């Protein structure tokens, strides 16, 4: 009976450890995804800003309007993705 009890106890301990590892893995994957999302957002935001700046420097109103509209659409898409309505 004592061996069965020990086996059950070890089983429960093993399950708890596995659950903890799964939680830690999930958290690490979530952190990694957040870092990647932030990097992609920053890259794209800088790209739009450079395009807008270049259009302003060249006094190209058409290119400025197009880039500005694309930038606003980009920001809105991120804003909508952040809302959990």
Average pLDDT for all residues:
90
- Structural class call reads mainly alpha
Query: What is the number of beta strands?
Result: 0
Q: What general outline do the C-alpha atoms trace?
A: rod-shaped
Low-confidence stretches: none
Terminal Cα span: 55 Å
Could you estimate the helical fraction of the residues in percent? over 70%
Main sheet record: none
Strand content: under 5%
Can you tell me about this structure?
- This protein has 85 residues and is an all-alpha fold.
- It has helices spanning 2-57, 61-82.
Quick summary of this structure?
With 85 residues, the protein is mostly helical. It contains 2 helices and no strands. It has helices spanning 2-57, 61-82.
SSE layout and pairing:
Layout: H1 2-57, H2 61-82
Helix pairs in contact: 1-2
Brief descriptors of the model:
2 helices, mainly alpha, 85 residues, 0% strand
